[in-house]
Amino acid sequence: MHLEIIARGERSRTWAYLSPVLAIVLTLVTSAFIFAFLGKDPLAALKVMWIDPVLTKRGFAELFVKAAPLVMIAIGLALGFRANVWNIGAEGQFIMGAIFATGVALYFYEVQNWPVWLAMIPAGILGGALWGAIPAFLKLRFNANEILTSLMLTYVASLILLYLVAGPWKDPDGYGFPQSRMFSDAANSPRLISGTRIHVGVFASLGIVILGWFLLQKSMLGFQLKVLGQAPRAAAFAGFSTRGLTWLSLLVGGGLAGLAGMFEVAGPIGQLTPALPTGYGFTAIIVAFLGRLHPIGILFGGLVLALSYLGGEKAQIALGLPAAVVKINQGILLFYLLACDLFIRYRVKIATGRAA
Amino acid sequence: MGEAMGSGALGPAMADSRPLLLGLKGITKAFPGCLANDAVDLDIRAGEIHALLGENGAGKSTLVKIVYGVLQPDAGEITIAGEMRRISSPAAARDLGIGMVFQHFSLFEALTVADNIALGLNTAAARRDLRSRIVAISESYGLPLDPDRVVHDLSVGERQRIEIVRCLLQKPKLLIMDEPTSVLTPQEADNLFATLRRLAAEGCAILYISHKLEEIRALCERATIMRQGRVVASCDPRATSARDLAEMMIGAELAAPAHARKPDAAAPVRLAVQDLSLRSNQQFGVDLHDISFAVRAGEILGIGGIAGNGQGELMAALSGEILALAPGAIALDGVAVGRIGPDGRRRQGACFVPEERNDHGAVRDMTLAENALLSAYRRRRLSRMGFIDRLRTLLFAGEVVEDFDVRTSGPRAEARSLSGGNLQKFIIGREILQDPGILVVAQPTWGVDAGAAAAIHQALMDLADAGAAIVIISQDLDELMMLADRIAVMAHGRLSPARPVAELSVAEIGLLMGGAQPERAEAAHAS
C-alpha cells in the first residue's frame, strides 16, 4: 500500500482564496493544543494572544505600525514571486535601506530641517535596490541561483550593520553601546496620530498596496511578470524580456524592502541598532503567500502576522511563554498554508495495488 | 458509413482461424471530467497487424496504457490466450509477453546502446550475453544497430530501433507501437514495415496506433476505430478508402481545402531570409547553416524534414526568440529585422505559431482572454498606456472562439481545459485574426483531429489568398504536399533549395530528409 498524489482536474478559485483562512483556523486550533499541553487554559491564552493586543487604541495602532513594513516588503516580493524570481533576501535589503537612510541622517545631523527626512527616503530605496541588484546581476551574468545569493547577502548586510554601529557610526555619547546616535527630530518620520506611533510610513504602505494593485492586476507589466513565472517560453514567444523583468523584480523588491528599512529606522526606532533586524524580511515571505501574492490579500496577511508579533509579546508578559512562541506560530501557519494549497491542487489516494 | 461498420466488423474476424491472443471486454476508464474508455471490446489474434485508429482524445492511448499495465481499468476484463489476467504494471505486462514502443523514447543520451537496453531489462539473467543477442536480433530483423554507439550520436530512427530491439529481446507475443512513423523518413518507415511484417509472420501480434491513414491501409489487416472513448467501427483497412476511414474516425464528412489561387511569380517578396547561420541555444540542439529562402505575397512555402534537424531553431530565429547575428539575415517586407525581438517583428506584420502549444504558444494556467493578450497585445491594441484593456481583450478572445469554432465555455476558460485540437484552433485563430502579412507556423495540425485539421488548413489557404506570405514547418508530408506551393527540406541544420510541389515526388523529399541532397545541391551551387 502506498500514497499517490493526483492532480485535481479543475482548480477551485473559491478554495484558493479560502485556503489562507482555513490555514489560520487550523493554526489557532493547533496553538490551542500547544497551550493546553503547556498547562495553560487554551481559550484564555488564545484571547491573550489574538484579541487582547488590539483592545486599546495604542495597541490597535501598533498593529498597523507592525504591519506597515511587512506589507511594503511583501508587495515587492510578490512582484518577483509571480515571475519565479525568488528573492529570499528582503531582510538584507531592509537592513541596507536602513543603513543608507541612517547615513543621510547622521551626515546631516546638524541640519534641523525636514528635507533631511525627505532625503532619507530615496537613500533607503537606493540601499535596498543596490542589495537587490547584486543577485540580479549574478543571476543574469553567471546564472547564479538568486535564492542562495540573496539569502547569503542578508548575513553580509547584518555584519555591515554590526561593523558600522560598533565602529564609525558608534554614538560618541552612548557609553560604548554598539548603536548610532538618536536621530535629530528632523530625521524622524512625522507622527500623524497623537498617542500612537502611527507615522507616515503606515500611509506609504497603504499607498503601495494601491500602486501594487494597479501594477500587478491591471498593467501589462504585471501580466508580463505572471507569464514569465508560469511559462518562461511563452514569455519569450510573446517578446517579454526575461532580463528586464528579472532586474525589475529584484530592484523593486529590494527598493521596497529598503524603504521599509528606512521607515523603521526613522520611525519607531529613531537610531541604527543591532536590534533593528527582527525578521520582517523573512516574515514578509509568509505574508506574500498568505495574501496569495495579491496586494489586497497581502494587506490582510500583513495584519495577521503583525498581530502574531503583538500577541507573542503579550504572551511572554501575561503567560510567561518564551519569545519563540511567535516564530512557532508563524511556522505552523506557513506549514498549514502550504498543506492547504497542496490539498486544493491535488488529492491523495491510497493505492492498494501490489508494487511490481 | 453504417454499412462499412456492419460488414467490416464481422467479415475478417469470423473468417480468421488464428488463436485469440488478447481479448478486452467492457474496458472502462474514467478520469475527472471525462470518460476515456467506455465499455471497449477488442480482440487481437496471434500474428495479426491490428490498427487502432482515432482522433486525438478518442481514448487510444488510455486503452493501450491499460493493456501495458500503466493504468488500471475501472471495469472490464482482460484475457490473454484465453486466461483472465490482471496487468498491474508494465513489468507484469512484459512477463505476459506484451512489449510496447512509446512515441517518446526513454533513452539516456550519454549511455551506449547496450547500456540503455540493459537498463530496461528486469533480471540479471536477461542481461547475460546481451551484446551478442542484440547483434543477432538486429541482424535477423533488419534493424542495423551497433551496441557500442552512444545514443546522442544516433538519429531518431536508430533510437527507435533500440526501443524495438529492447522489446524483441523479451520475445513478445504482442508488440504495441504508438505512432512509430511520426519521426521517420518514408524510407525508414518502409524498413520498419518490413520488420513488422516479418514479426507478424512469425506469429507476433502487432497493435499499431497511428493517425496516418495511408500507412494503416498499407500495413494493417484489421482496424478498430475509436471515437469519444468508444469503439465505433471495425474494418479491413486494405478494402476501405482513406477518406472513409477518416470519416469513421471523426463521424462527419471531410471537406478538402479549397485552393482558390495560383501563386503569382511577380508578387512582392514579403519574407526574405539571407545566409542565416545560428548557434543553437539547446544542449543537443542543431546549429543553422547558411539558410536562405524567400516567400512572396500569396505564397505558401512548406519546410519539411525529420524532427530535430534544426526546425525548432529556425522557428525561434524567424520569430525573434533567438536573434540573428546580422540585421539583414531576415527581412519582413524589405525591413531588416534580424536583430529585433518578437514584438518588433509583429509590429512589422509577422505572426507566429510555435510547435509546442503548452506553455509556449499558450499558457496552460491562464484564461483564453489572457492568452489572447499574450501575442496580440500589439497588433490588436489590447493594452493602452501600459494598462490592459480588459474589454477589448475579452472581445478579441471571443472573436477567435467564434470565428475558429473553438469548443470551450468562453474566453474566461483556462487554456488547460481545452483539448489539444481546440487549443491549436485558438492559437492559429489568434494569429490569423491579427491580419498578419507574414505568418510562420510550425506543425499546424500536430496531434489535432481530422476535423480541426481541415479547418486549420482552410484558414491558412484563405490567409494566403488574401495576400499573406506563409511558411509552414511540418513533419507531415501529406500536409505540405496539400498546402504548399513550394517545398524545401531541412536536414542537419541546412535547408535545401525550395522547389515547386508539382516537380517533387515523395521519394525525392525522402532523400532530402535523409540529408542526401543538400551537399550535392550545395556543390552544384558552388561550381
Name its key features.
heterodimer, A: 356 residues, mainly alpha, ABC transporter involved in vitamin B12 uptake, BtuC, two-stranded antiparallel ribbon, 2 strands, B: alpha/beta, Rossmann fold, 6-stranded mixed beta sheet, disordered N terminus, membrane (chain A), transmembrane helix (chain A), Nucleoside ABC transporter membrane protein (chain A)
Unreliable segments of 5+ consecutive residues of chain A: none
Which CATH architecture of chain A would you pick? Orthogonal Bundle
Shape of chain A: globular
- Rg of chain B over CA atoms, rounded to whole Å, is 24 Å
Largest interface: A-B, 24 and 39 residues
User: Quick one: CATH superfamily of the largest domain in chain B?
Assistant: P-loop containing nucleotide triphosphate hydrolases
* Annotation, overall tally of beta strands of chain A: 2
CATH topology of the largest domain in chain B: Rossmann fold
CATH architecture of the largest domain in chain B: 3-Layer(aba) Sandwich
Radius of gyration of chain A: 22 Å
N-end to C-end Cα span of chain A: 12 Å
Question: What is the subunit arrangement here?
Answer: heterodimer
Q: Structurally, how many domains make up the residues of chain B?
A: 3
Which fold does the CATH topology of chain A refer to?
ABC transporter involved in vitamin B12 uptake, BtuC
Overall number of strands of chain B:
23
Structure description:
The complex is a heterodimer of chains A (356) and B (527). With 356 residues, chain A is mostly helical. In chain A, 70% of the residues lie in helices and 3% in strands. Chain A contains 13 helices and 2 strands. Chain A starts with a strand and ends in a 5-residue tail after the last strand. The model of chain A has no long low-confidence stretch (mean pLDDT 90). In chain B, the strands form 5 sheets. In chain B, strands 13, 16, 19, 20, 21, 22 and 23 form a 7-stranded mixed β-sheet that branches. Chain B has a 6-stranded mixed β-sheet with strand order 6-7-8-3-9-10, sandwiched between helices. Chain B is built from 19 helices and 23 strands. At the A-B interface, helix 8 and helix 9 of A face helix 3, helix 12, helix 13 and strand 18 of B.
